[in-house]
Write a structure and sequence with these properties.
Length: 723
């Protein structure tokens, strides 16, 4: 993608409105938390104390809107504690630049590394840098600094208490994640009715699994409906795929295919009903037609062999999903007790046990080629440089420049630039509106305090509809706070606009100078996905060779690793599509062909999983050699791809010939193995090109992009050239 096109996409993305469900009650509760601190602080204390209280309550409330699976009150308390600590540390070092600047750099570097834990940790950590830069201007002594830190921490406590006293849609994010997973499987069933070879994106199931991990205290209060449907949905995907597949499932045409389409449609309706029930916490309402189709009857005789087995397995799993949903959402449902050791759940570490987990995650990112490490370096450099530049300008409130930089910077190019555009646009509009209100209403600290609370509530309400629109009211919130302190708009508005522009420009320049492009890493990500897929396919075959509980656990572990590798590839590929970087190693067409090949490989493994034998059932020992060959060849092929060599499948071909000569007893399994071999051959075709061919292909792709851009500018279709 060229720079002009990338910047146009950035502008469009930064100002776009995301269609999401508004949560006004959550916004109202968070705004009340701000009011409960700003009002008394203004009445009993001073505007400076009110500003500290507003900062703590507003930032802690905003942190609870980030997507996280821990209780919101824990997030609020953590944000408040981090803000208070950064405020106190900043004041203690603020006497001299020689002590304060290194602290800002070190703190910003740590905030950047927090992205190793997740986006929520990274965003909350960035707000602590802003707190350090702002609140050191408020206290006048160490004792006052401690008081301000306490007031800021109190903001987190107040938000946590409000969440505890007025719970709104408890477990709502977890319900949404599980419902989205069931809805994704329903959508997959519908797509298979029309395209029996359609692929399935496991991301909703991965999100639901992440949401299912709970601490022991959470496990005691988790609703019954959130306990089992995810596992049922996991097992349903292979059954649906096997039923629709024309090679091992229902025939391509005829009554069997018609019956399979009816079952897939009924399964989709049942899954949608279960998803609605879990999302809303209401009883399940299944359409009568779907219930009739899923009952055992003479119509099922048109399906034979593996197709009949897949249909029976699908009906069994759908019945389990409905039973769990009905039990969990019934008015008289009894909660599941978690007192005994027999109850198993995905465990999430508590806050204290999280420390070594965070340390390991950060240690993994301490390398020069890590996007998180490069983001941390950029953040530290920009925060320090922005503070120094702003201090030399004849403007007050110089902290706005580094704050603007810190709050918009992200580990990737597109989000950094899009947020910079959104922050500037939102700040312009918000400051203009709030300044007009300040001028019209005149100096009134209490009125401005009330308007600040209203602005905070509107910012919370729009926080998920687009950064620009939330930032508009956040900017107005700051203007009202400054007006509450008696500062004239002539002293603040031009300063903030200039310094916000400076901070955004520094953030964008920093990424251009010290980027972390994903485009050159695509080949590495693809190799990781291939190796993980090979281990997963080998684990499935080994379970056929020796059906035991340990082999089943290995298969599940390998499947999760394969999904993580696929998600990493998809994230890198999506980012690379938005980067103004010439393709290196893989062109866009090659990357797309390779992705389709590996998706076909995944699909073959999914079909195998639909028929894995139960533990201690009769085995298929002849596939052990194929499992070893698949794991070995894919591992070697991944290494070859990283070194830009052509992959080779010699051991896989030999194992398949041996299996054929031995007369394998499982023709369906052999058919799926052939599908895997075909997918590997497609992958080799996609990535096996000589360096000259690759360079020529890259140049041609660049030429096509330029032609498309010129055609859009001229309002015509791009010309197609031969050769």
């Amino acid at each position: 993608m060229t720079w002009p096109r990338a910047l146009r996409d950035v502008l469009r993305s930064g100002l776009s409105i995301e269609e999401t469900r508004l949560e006004p009650l959550l916004a109202l509760r968070a705004a009340v938390g701000v009011a409960l601190l700003v009002g008394p602080a203004l009445w009993l204390g001073s505007p400076a104390y009110a500003a500290s209280a507003a900062l703590g309550a507003f930032s802690a409330g905003g942190a609870t809107f980030q997507r996280a699976w821990r209780p919101r009150k824990v997030i609020a308390l953590g944000a408040g504690a981090g803000l208070a600590l950064s405020t106190l540390a900043g004041y203690l070092a603020a006497g001299h630049l020689v002590t304060f600047l290194p602290l800002v750099a070190l703190w910003s570097f740590g905030a950047g590394l927090a992205w190793a834990v997740g986006s929520t940790a990274g965003i909350v950590a960035a707000t602590t840098v802003g707190s350090m830069l702002v609140t050191i201007t408020l206290p006048t002594s160490a004792g006052r600094a401690l008081e301000h830190a306490g007031i800021i921490a109190l903001g987190g406590v107040v938000q946590a208490v409000l969440i505890l006293l007025f719970p709104i849609r408890r477990w709502g994010a977890h319900r949404d994640a599980l419902a989205d997973a069931l809805a994704a499987v329903a959508d997959y069933a519908r797509r298979l009715r029309h395209d029996p070879l359609a692929g399935f994106d496991p991301e909703p199931l991965m999100t639901a699994r992440d949401a299912a991990a709970v601490t022991p205290s959470q496990a005691r209060t988790r609703p019954v409906a959130l306990h089992g449907p995810r596992g049922v949905a996991e097992r349903m995907v292979p059954a649906i795929a096997a039923l629709a597949d024309p090679d091992i499932g229902a025939p391509a045409e005829g009554p069997g295919r018609d019956r399979a389409r009816e079952l897939l449609d009924a399964a989709a309706e049942v899954l949608d009903a279960a998803a609605r029930s879990i999302r809303r916490g209401t009883p399940v309402e299944v359409p009568p037609r779907a219930s009739e189709l899923l009952r055992e009857g003479p119509e099922h005789k048109v399906l034979e062999g593996p197709a009949r087995q897949a249909a029976e397995r699908l009906r069994e799993l759908l019945g389990q999903a409905l039973e769990i949903a009905e039990c969990g959402n019934a008015r008289t449902g009894t909660p599941v007790r978690h007192g005994g050791a027999r109850v198993e759940f995905l465990e999430r570490p508590t806050m204290f046990r999280l420390v070594p987990v965070v340390a390991r995650a950060v240690r993994r990112e301490l390398r020069r080629d890590s996007p998180v490490f490069r983001h941390a370096v950029r953040l530290a450099a920009v925060a320090t440089l922005g503070y120094l530049i702003a201090a030399q300008l004849p403007l007050g409130h110089g902290y706005w420049a580094p704050i603007a930089s810190v709050m918009v910077m992200r580990p990737d190019f597109h989000r950094t630039y899009a947020r910079a555009v959104a922050r500037l646009a939102g700040t312009l509009v918000g400051v203009a509106l709030a300044t007009g209100a300040v001028e019209a209403l005149g100096p009134d600290a209490r009125l401005f305090g009330a308007l600040a609370v209203v602005s905070a509530g509107l910012s919370y309400t729009l926080i998920r509809t687009g950064y620009a629109y939330s930032q508009c009211f956040a900017a107005a919130y700051v203007v009202f706070l400054l007006g509450m302190g008696g500062q004239a708009w002539e002293q603040t508005v031009p300063e903030r606009m200039t310094l916000t522009l400076l901070g955004g420009a520094l953030a964008m320049l920093a990424y251009a100078v010290f980027p972390a492009w994903e485009t050159p890493r695509l080949r590495e990500r693809l190799a990781d996905w291939l190796a993980a897929d090979g281990r997963h396919a080998a684990a499935v075959l080994r379970h056929f060779a020796e059906p035991t509980a340990d082999r089943r656990a290995d298969m599940r572990s390998a499947q999760l690793a394969s999904r993580r590798a696929r998600a990493a590839w998809q994230e890198a590929y999506d980012r690379a599509q938005q980067e103004p970087v010439r393709p290196r190693g893989l062109t866009a067409q090659e990357a797309k062909a390779a992705q389709e090949a590996l998706e076909g490989f995944d699909r073959a493994a999914t079909l195998m999983e639909s028929r894995v034998p139960h533990d201690d059932n009769p085995s298929t020992p002849e596939v052990e050699e194929l499992a070893e060959a698949l794991e070995s060849d894919t591992e070697q092929a991944a290494a070859a791809m990283r070194e830009r060599r052509d992959p080779d499948w010699a051991r896989v071909e030999k194992a398949l010939r041996t299996w054929e000569e031995a007369g394998g007893r499982n023709p369906a399994l052999r058919s799926e193995a052939d599908l895997q071999k075909h997918a590997l051959e497609n992958l080799a075709t996609a990535v096996s090109r000589t360096p000259l061919e690759r360079d020529v292909g890259s140049l041609r792709e660049d030429q096509r992009v330029w032609e498309a851009v010129e055609a859009q500018g001229n309002g015509s279709e791009p010309a197609h050239r031969g050769g």
